[in-house]
Predict the structure.
Amino acid sequence: MSFEAEMIIPFEGVDDLEQKAEASITFLRYSINFSYSSDDSLRSLGALEILKEELVHINLGDAKKN
């Protein structure tokens, strides 16, 4: 299973330590891929495993395509 989300973030923000931060790029793509695996030795039905997680910027020149 995989998910992708493109987002525009604010230029200015505040981090978890209450420090001001400025973004150099505000158009981002977040993607995550999961895999389900069953394991007969576990008492649960199985587990989700993250195969890949990525946050990348989208260049201004490529923004129109996206």
